[in-house]
């Protein structure tokens, strides 16, 4: 079939802009989820979940004339699981394409090869796809921390987080008149919980709703009043009550539900925090250890990238311009497509520690 007259309107320079912006996800520095579970390209269609065991335990004594105890090696369990496939696209319809054509030929657009408006549109489209991919990854990571599982199309991969590591606060943080959130945290971190004694902790993570519960408690208001504090910094309050508590950090990552109307338009629904309400993640300091994160967010091979072949599938996040729609001359369109095949892979399942503040 002959090419549509508008083929090539989105040319090589625009494609570079699109690919470069989306590829910046690899170097994200301000996304805590991707710091706790960094991205890694894996040249495979399936992942191996290798659970890393504790290094500092001790078994009982060996009796004379008896064999010593066997301990697990690096992993006491391995399992194979399939990653999910995630993809979204942005469509440029006939009117959009005609506006691009009006920008002039490559020779007419000056030394950059792109008009300002056109470059802005390409950058915005790529930024939108980048943000949605990054949000998707973040949400999958936070879900894995608080559920101990990865779910794709109804298939559940259970990473085996022990129930003994899922604590419940001593007071109900929703009952402001009696709740004592800082005391609850001190009882956990102060060595009163035998399981926690082996850790040095880095941070306490919660969403804004749970943080509001903490700040509305009688205990918190009492400190603010008695010490005449004007600051609402929880870490300053903690130093008055229990010096040495790990730093409290509020995670505002959120996503918004979307549904499609009959005409194809998107209807925006409620927004939700990725860190669930009434949940707290207790993050150990893995510094100095061999494995310094909870695991990896692994990106599998794909056949979507334009470089992929049967002999050599592509790796990583993919992004490309699909001009197939130009063959529909009654209603031509072009799509920018981006996505990945991947999943969170929790390897330190024994170190996922959570606190429920309201049941």
Question: Describe it for me?
Answer:
The protein has 359 residues and is an alpha+beta fold. The strands form 6 sheets. Strands 1, 4, 13, 16 and 17 form a 5-stranded mixed sheet that branches. Helix 1 runs parallel beside helix 4. The N and C termini lie far apart (62 Å).
Give me some keywords for this one.
five-stranded mixed beta sheet
H/I helix tally: 8
Radius of gyration: 26 Å
Mean pLDDT level: 83
Q: Strand share of the residues?
A: 25-35%
Order of helices and strands: HHEEEEHHEEEHEHHHEEEEEEEEEE
- Could you estimate the helical fraction of the residues in percent? 25-40%
Low-confidence runs (pLDDT<50, min 5 residues)?
Answer: 104-114
Shape descriptor: globular
Structural class: alpha+beta
Biggest beta sheet summary: 5 strands, mixed
How many extended strands? 18
N- and C-termini, Cα separation: 62 Å
Describe the secondary-structure layout.
Layout: H1 12-23, H2 32-36, E1 39-41, E2 47-52, E3 75-81, E4 84-92, H3 94-101, H4 116-147, E5 149-152, E6 155-158, E7 166-168, H5 181-192, E8 201-206, H6 208-216, H7 218-226, H8 234-241, E9 247-250, E10 254-260, E11 266-273, E12 279-284, E13 295-299, E14 301-302, E15 314-315, E16 318-322, E17 334-346, E18 353-356
Parallel strand pairs: 1-13, 7-18, 8-9
Antiparallel strand pairs: 2-3, 4-17, 5-6, 8-12, 10-11, 12-18, 13-17, 14-15, 16-17
Helix pairs in contact: 1-4
In a few lines, what is going on in this structure?
This protein is α+β, with helices and mostly antiparallel strands.
């Amino acid at each position: 079939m002959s090419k549509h007259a508008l083929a090539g309107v989105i040319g090589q320079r625009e494609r570079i802009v699109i690919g470069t912006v989306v590829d910046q996800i690899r170097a994200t520095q301000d996304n805590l989820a991707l710091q706790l579970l960094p991205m890694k390209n894996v040249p495979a269609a399936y992942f191996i979940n290798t659970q890393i065991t504790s290094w500092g335990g001790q078994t009982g004594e060996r009796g004379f004339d008896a064999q010593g105890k066997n301990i697990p090696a690096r992993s006491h369990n391995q399992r194979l699981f399939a990653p999910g496939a995630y993809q979204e696209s942005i469509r440029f319809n006939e009117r959009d394409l005609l506006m691009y054509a009006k920008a002039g030929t490559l020779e007419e657009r000056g030394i950059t090869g792109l008009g300002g408006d056109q470059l802005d549109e390409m950058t915005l489209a790529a930024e939108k796809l980048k943000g949605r991919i990054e949000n998707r990854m973040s949400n999958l990571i936070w879900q894995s921390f608080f559920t101990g599982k990865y779910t794709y199309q109804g298939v559940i991969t259970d990473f085996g987080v022990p129930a003994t590591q899922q604590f419940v606060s001593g007071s109900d943080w929703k009952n402001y008149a009696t709740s004592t959130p800082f005391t609850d945290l001190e009882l956990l971190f102060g060595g009163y919980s035998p399981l926690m004694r082996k850790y040095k902790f880095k941070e306490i993570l919660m969403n804004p709703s749970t943080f509001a519960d903490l700040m509305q408690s009688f205990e918190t208001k009492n400190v603010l009043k008695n010490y005449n504090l004007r600051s609402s910094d929880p870490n300053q309050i903690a130093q008055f009550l229990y010096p040495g508590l790990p730093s409290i950090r509020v995670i505002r990552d959120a996503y918004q539900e979307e549904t499609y109307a009959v005409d194809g338009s998107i209807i925006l629904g409620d927004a939700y925090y990725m860190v669930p309400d009434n949940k707290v993640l207790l993050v150990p300091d893995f510094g100095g250890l061999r494995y310094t994160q909870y695991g990896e967010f692994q990106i599998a091979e794909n056949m979507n990238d334009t470089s992929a072949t049967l002999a050599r599938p592509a790796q990583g996040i993919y992004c490309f311009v699909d001009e197939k729609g130009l063959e529909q001359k009654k209603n031509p369109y072009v799509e920018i497509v981006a996505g990945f095949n991947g999943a969170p892979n929790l390897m330190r399942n024994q170190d996922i520690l959570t606190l429920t503040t309201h049941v």
